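User: quick one - fold this with iron/sulfur cluster bound?
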Amino acid sequence: MTKRLYIETVGCQMNMLDSELVVASLRKEGYELADSPTGADAILFNTCSVRQHAEDKIYSALGRLKHAKNHHPDTVIGVIGCMAQNHQQTIFRRAPYVDLVVGPGQLHQIPQLVRDVARDRQPRLEVSLARSAGSRSEVEDSFESYDPLRDPTMRPTPFQAFVRIMIGCDKFCTYCIVPMVRGPEQSRPAGEIEHEVRHLVEEGCREVTLLGQTVNSYRDRSATPHVRFSELIARLHEIDGLDRIKFVTNYPKDMSDDLLDAVATLPKCSHYLHVPAQSGSDRMLKAMKRGYTVGEYREMYSRIKERIPQAAVTSDFIVGFCGESDADFTQTVELVRESRFKNSFIFKYSARPGTKAAENAADDVPEAEKRRRNNELLAIQNAISEEDNQPFIGREVEVLVEGPSKASQKQADDSHTLQLTGRTMCDRIVVFEGTRRQVGEILPVVVYDANAFTLFGSVVTSHVGPEVYSL
Ligand code: SF4
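Assistant: Sure. Structure tokens for the protein plus iron/sulfur cluster:
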């Protein structure tokens, strides 16, 4: 009998991939995805611990299920991912009707755990070792990368896939909980990754996004000699049928010349580089223990632009970090103005229990000031993004068509034309009129308008026209 699974995912692309894999594993157990928790046989929350707000949202969602669980005691309720590893028993204490708490290193156990709970109604807690609870190899072994082969129907689009190339992080930025909840940095063997990508391509995948918390720190140490990230990319580039290779998130200090040369010279590599700066102030970078100075970030940025002038570089910034003064913030503004990032993700600092910053430094920038700095930086970045999108007007760009735009998702399946959305090689979003048959194709599109976030265009039907830019 078909069972219904409702899953809610918050957080990063790593979580989106984890959810996709968990859903695939439960589909094999006879579960079908449900649009709402009402009437579901299993309800899972795949969680994030990076910000307080993300955790609060999960506790609120669990609170809303209390009543439903009283009426449907057979429903299996699970909290999985980073918050499960971070909060463990606290989740059972705050929501005693939760059945499963499963960390990111134990996702492969979920089908069995769901079966066990359905059978005996006993709660299950499966998490990895804390980073100080054993030797490095014991802790590493307790975080298992979950990368089963997937069939195309399991992915949001059959022609795109996330591929995890490493797990964990060893950088220990003082504000960040990731090294605690995702464990030590461990790279997957290059051969295994290549096998997975070949399988995906055989199943119709054209674009892979390689994932890692610090993806450019990748190094396959199980091989002799070690395989560097640039070498992994070169191997994947050889795969016939694969058209695009992207990767996120880069760590500034590990942006090596050989990697930039690979991106510059291998035509399947996207010229999109997400390299979070976090702050433009050396004082703040030191307090965050980011491991570089603003000068070093600028030097890395110039190396990118020297080798790949058309690169679209994006960044993350934290505003209102402990002790951030007006002068520190002004330096961040200067970095944003001068770097002209394609876009920046800007976050107000949120103290995370268990991190060095939460233990040792006062979260002393008032909330209103954090909000003001956030809004100011966002406005500056948006103005830059809008200006830098204007030169695209009149150009032809290559777009991988991802599907109907949000606005046209509700349109009837039989409508002839609809608004489609896709991305250029440099990860710019393009919206244009097309047909459902074009989804999954790479099409030439001429841009006729642009705002800070989107290019608007028309599909080129004849190739007599403007020069094509591989952007
Ligand atoms: S590099 Fe820093 S911010 Fe990024 S995941 Fe590792 S500890 Fe967190």
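One thing worth noting: The two ends are 48 Å apart (CA to CA).
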